[in-house]
Amino acid sequence: MPILLLGNKDIDLISGKRNITIRRLWKQPLYRGDRLFCYWNILSKEREKIFEAEVTKVKILPFKEIISNSELPHKLGYKNSKELEKDLKKSYPNNTKDNDEFQIFEFKKLHVTQWEGSAINQKNMIIKKADILFDMGEYEQSSLCYQAALEYDPDDANLLNRIGDNLSRLGQFGDAIKNYKKAIKLQPDNEYLYNNIALVYLNKGEPDNALKMSNEAFKINPKNTTILYWRGIIYEMLNDFEEALKYFDEVLELDDTDPDVWNERGTLLNMLGKSEEALISYDKSLELCLDDTKDSNTWASKGNTLLGLQRYDEAIECYDNALKIDDSNPIILNNKGVAYMELDDFQSAIECFTKVLVMYPNNPDAQVLQEVCLENL
Fold it and tell me: Which domains does the chain have, with CATH numbers?
């Protein structure tokens, strides 16, 4: 019972895009007609059978001949002979002498009814792998896996949605929209699908088109906090701050526990010249926030608001809290330096700008501000 282990680089074999591969010659060579039990070991402790296959063609070649063959690398999914050679040497460091033999074989997948071993839910297993790849940020491979799962059920709107999510993160906005629209045909009352298209248009820098899609989502469910939040972001992108604030307030009426909403609300209030109210929103965001990265941004935003209100000591305290989390942020360090300048503490300001210039020697703000401080010492 030959076993074929597949990894991330074998996504084309799993998705069916390619049915030819290469392996070191096994102790028991493969022959035409052999049954393959194919497993995917994406995680070191995880091995699950994903399909069974029948070997249709086998060719045994020495390493020297393989790397000198100009056509073989493309058939095996490599760009060129150098890439194939590098991968083989990495995978088989002790088996790449000129005469070391490899087997190049083709196979055809067998329908689950033809399996000799126990059957599994292939679709669910592939989705599980795709989800793992998505969480790892491997969006292209994840998308291929979702496509493979889609072969088992072409009318799965959730899969189409996930494919759209991957393509959007890959910057393939047109294809992402196509998949979301296919999903909408299957689930026309799913507001999240319209919202996802709106997010694609936002990423494309087209807030007007984003609003059109958001309107469709809003018609379906005007009380969905996710839809309301992104409507606020869209109106903010359209510079309609009053309308944006209205939607953030609607979200908070339904659920006042999201720190992101409070933070965005604070930003809008600042833009509307309502700094004191903005400080209240930032404090609420900090109270609820459990993510250090977001925490840093909120502390910095609160510091900027206090800087604008000429409450310099309080601003510096906020910048210090932000820098505890993100100590190499040049914007925060520069703003902290400006607060010291307003207090006529030019020595402390210089220390801030010097830290920036050590990390970012060409930072223009730090260069100019440091020169101003030196002139005032």
Answer: 3-119 (2.30.130.30), 121-188 (1.25.40.10), 328-377 (no CATH)
